[in-house]
C-alpha cells in the first residue's frame, strides 16, 4: 500500500510506514503569500510540535498538509504521491486534522459527534458497520469519555469537549494526526490532560503533529520541535537542540533564560523580567 | 483498534434487523452489508406529521362551497358518482391540495438546507432574497411580455436561479461562501429586487398591476393539475438528490475545515446543495407565487420537536406540507377568488 519514497532508516519491517512531507511549498490566500520555499518531513512515529509567533503560518501549513489549501508552488507528498491526486475521502482516511476552532453542532451527544469521524469510512448505504462501532468506542475509551457517551457535548467542560473532538479525529483511524492548537483556551490541568493523551497516542506508534503555544509544554512533550517564524522554518530538532536563548530571541524576539526542568531535565523557558533592571 | 471486546458487545451476532447500539441514540437497521441509522424520535415526529397532513387533506377534500359527504368524496376520487361532484373533487380540490402539500414541503426542505448552509435561522429563501428574485422574474414577465401561466412560471424559476447565482457570487470571498455573509448579501439583494418590483408597479397600467398583485400575493386559488404535476416532478428529482447530500451538509455546520478533514469537498457540496434548494424554491414559487413563513418556520419547528440538530429533510418536508395545507384549508372557504391573507 505504501509507495514511500522516504522510508525512515530505523524501520526495517513491520506495519506500513506512512509519510507526509512538504517540498518547497508556497502557500497563501488570494493576494498574499504566507509561506514560501518551505520543506518539512513529518517524521513517522514522532510527536512533532510546531511552535512560532502568532500569524507566522502554522495553521496555514497544517491546512496545506491536510489538503484544505492548495499549494501555489511545490508539492505535498502523502505516502509517495502528490496529495492532490487523492480523493478528499482518501486523504481523510490517511490524515486526520483537528482544526483550531471547530464549531460544536447543536443538540449533539458525545457519541454522535465522535461517530462523525467515521464519515470517510462510510457510504450512503453503509452508515454504521461493526468497524464503526469498534472505532468509536475505542476512541471514546482512549480519551476517557466512554462513560459520558450519551451526554450532550455543550454540557461538558472545555477540557472534556476538547477530548471529545480529539476522539472524533481518532475515530477516523488515520495513521497521521494533525492537531491545531489542541490546548489553547484550556486551563493548565486540562492542557496537561490533553498533552498526556497525545503522549500516549505517540507511544502507541501514531505519527502526531501538534501546534502549541506554550514553549514549556512543547519542550516537555515533543519528540521533535519545529520552530516557525514569518512563514519559514527557522530550526528543528530535539527540545535540547532547539530551545535555546539565541533561538528564542531570533524566532520570537523573546529575551529568556533556559533552565533544566527539575522534573525531567528538558529545557525550561523563563522569560526575563524586564522590570528588574540588570 | 484498541477495543475488540467493545465491538462484540455492541454488535452481537445480528446481521439483519433493527440493532440497538448502546453508544447511539437511535437504532441501526442492518441487512447484510447495508446499514442505515434510524432515529426513533425523528421517526415518531415524522409519523405524527404525516398523520396530521392526512387529516388536513381529508378535511380539505370535504370543504368547499359544494356540500359533499365523505362517502361521495371517496367515490369521486375513484371516478364514481355525480359528474359535477367528480369534477369538483378530482379537478379542483385534489390538485389544489396536492399543490399545497408539495409547495409547502418544498419550501420546508429548502428552508432546512439554507438555514444549515448559512448557519443561521434567518437563512431561509424568503429572507435571503431568492423568493423575491423569483417574484421579480414573474413580475417582469407579466409587465413586459404579458403573462401566461407557463411563461410566468418559467420566468419565476429563471428569476430565482439568477438571484441565487448573484447572491452566491457576491457572498463568495476567497472561494469560500456560506455563513452570515450569505444572509446579509441575500437580504440586500432581496431589498433591491423588492424596490424594483415596486418601481415597475408604479409605472404599470392598471390591468398589469392587478395581475401582478394577484400573483405576488401568493395563492393556491385556482391551482390545477399542471401546478401539482410540475412541483411533483421537481420534488421527485430534487429531494432524493438532496437526501444524498444530507449528511455532508449537516457536517458543514462544524466549520469548513472540520468538514473537509472528514473528507467532504466543502465548496462543491455546498454549491450543489444550494443549487438544488434554489431550484426547489423557484419551482414552488412558480406554482403559487411567493409564500412567506413556511420555509422559515418548518425547519425550526422540526428542530424543536425532534430535539435534534442538523438537516432533517423529510420531517421538514412533512412540516411544511402540513403548515401550508392547513393554511389553505382554513382559507378556502373564506374567500372567493381573491388572495388569501397569509401571503406577504
Ligand atoms: N482565510 C484566510 N484568508 C486570508 N488570510 C488568512 C486566512 N487565514 C489566515 N490568513 C493570514 O495568514 C497568516 C498566517 O495565518 P495562520 O496560518 O493562521 O497563523 P498561525 O496559525 O501561525 O497563527 C496570517 O497573517 C493570517 O492573517
Ligand atoms: Mg493558528
TrEMBL record, chain A:
SMART domains linked: AAA (SM00382)
Gene Ontology biological process terms from the UniProt entry: iron ion transport
Domain ABC transporter: 20-255
Membrane-protein topology: Peripheral membrane protein
Pfam families on file: ABC_tran (PF00005)
Coiled-coil annotated spans: none
Domain of life: Bacteria
The keyword Oxidoreductase belongs to this UniProt entry's keyword annotation: no
SUPFAM superfamilies referenced in this protein's UniProt entry, alphabetically: P-loop containing nucleoside triphosphate hydrolases
GO cellular component: plasma membrane
GO molecular function terms noted in the UniProt entry: ATP binding; ATP hydrolysis activity
Keywords attached to this entry: ATP-binding, Cell membrane, Ion transport, Iron, Iron transport, Membrane, Nucleotide-binding, Transport
Compartment(s): Cell membrane
PANTHER family the UniProt entry points to: IRON(3+)-HYDROXAMATE IMPORT ATP-BINDING PROTEIN FHUC
Full protein name: ABC transporter ATP-binding protein
Organism, as annotated: Miniimonas arenae
